[in-house]
Amino acid sequence: MPSDQKIQPTHPRILLLVVLLGVFAFALLQSLINPVLPVLQRDLGTTQGSITWVMTAFLLSASVLTPVLGRLGDRYGKDRVLVASLTALAVGSVISALAPNIAVMVVGRAVQGAGGGVLPLTFGIIRDEMPRERVPGAIGITAALAAVGGGVGVVLSGPLTDLFGTRSLFWLPLLLAIAAALAVHLVVPPSPARSDTGISWLSVALMAAWLVALLLPLSQGPRWGWSSNLVIGMLAAAALLAVGWTLIERRSTSPLVDIRMMRVTAVWTTNLVSLLFGVVLFSVMAFLPTFVQTPPAAGYGFGVSVTQAGLLLLPMTALMFVAGLVSARLVRRLGPRVVLVAASALNVAAVAAIAFQHDRQWHVPVAMGLLGISLGLAFATMSNVIAAAVRPDQTGVANGVTANVRTIGGALGIAVVGGTVSTHTPPGGLPTEVGYTLGFAVLGIAGTVALLTSLLIPRHPGHTSHP
């Protein structure tokens, strides 16, 4: 259908609802599979170390492709690239749903990672099409929905698996992605302005290389040996590649990530907090369902079903949504720094409770409730701190970077916690309680660093020129 035949929305809310459908489809995939990883492991006949790549491949792919698709949207039209991103998400869902083995499923999950482009593209479309005074609120809703969608996935995975089997967890996002792609094609108008600058594919290759060089040894360290030459060599290579990528980005006239913008105090502090919150969020959603499903005979766990595990995590999703709604009022009254400091403190308390107080089932929903309040306040507030700290034309790009950094943090967290748990897993047996305790304690360290970093965020992060 030609772009001039698109149905123009009668109200900005119609456009917002359409793009939010795509955001929800992608967010759902970030956690829908996590609670059933043990079931998938048995179905595919693979090991615990291999099954974690179902998550890592998705997050790694999203980390690399999110800024690339955002830049392609600037050049070829955000509406067109958003449709392409949602289409790739749908194709990856089909591959994963039909995968006969772990290798094919990992490929499908990597293709699904292209759905990460919906976040910067949605932020850009909101910036282009919404009235300026409504942009911060719309961006806050988008950021909150991206987090809430992840929690919904944890809750829905059990009932869907019980009713339709594990492969149904890929068919649902497929339907949502198709519906979102069609709605975007019909409703979202062509981008009003497009960049004529190209993309530095060398920069893309370097970014992909240093992320892979970092995540691969973190996830495979227990198998290869943390002191092995391979692990140390890849980590060193990751550091060198990251430095090279940064230098190229600084000199580029059309960088994937504007390094100058990232040097603004409100921007880099908020992005560091976002990365550390990503470490906590994705790791909890990945490993806590497995923890509570473990039979008590192992010395921990409650032996609950997948559905019951989702219900134990339900307070996180519900309170995350409520906290996201009230965050704007709290920011206006107390300021963004106070809200982020409070959210970070709740984050530390929640993770500490998970690590050291998990003997009774009721301990889990209480900790998840605290975590939900923390995440809801933090994600909505961070998006508006970024919007206030950068130029209006950078709102979409800057918030896209923040979302992408959170995804990278998730990949790092899953790799580190997965490696810690695997280190304390006897051959052919279940992980020990010590492995989970240490893994969750690592998340507490990440939360503490986020708390300290949030203290550095300016009290009034208004827009300032790049240094």
From TrEMBL:
Example of a GO cellular component annotation carried by this entry: plasma membrane
Major facilitator superfamily (MFS) profile domain residues: 15-462
Principal location listed in the UniProt entry: membrane
PROSITE patterns named in the record: MFS (PS50850)
Localisation: Cell membrane
GO molecular function annotations of the record: transmembrane transporter activity
InterPro entries with a match to the protein in the record: MFS, MFS_dom, MFS_trans_sf
Alphabetical keyword list: Membrane, Transmembrane, Transmembrane helix, Transport
SUPFAM superfamilies assigned to the protein according to its UniProt record, in alphabetical order: MFS general substrate transporter (SSF103473)
Topology relative to the membrane: Multi-pass membrane protein
Transmembrane intervals: 12-30, 50-69, 81-100, 138-157, 169-188, 200-218, 230-248, 268-288, 300-326, 338-356, 362-382, 403-422, 434-457
Protein name (Swiss-Prot/TrEMBL): MFS transporter
Organism: Micromonospora acroterricola
Highest classification ranks of the organism: Bacteria, Bacillati, Actinomycetota, Actinomycetes, Micromonosporales
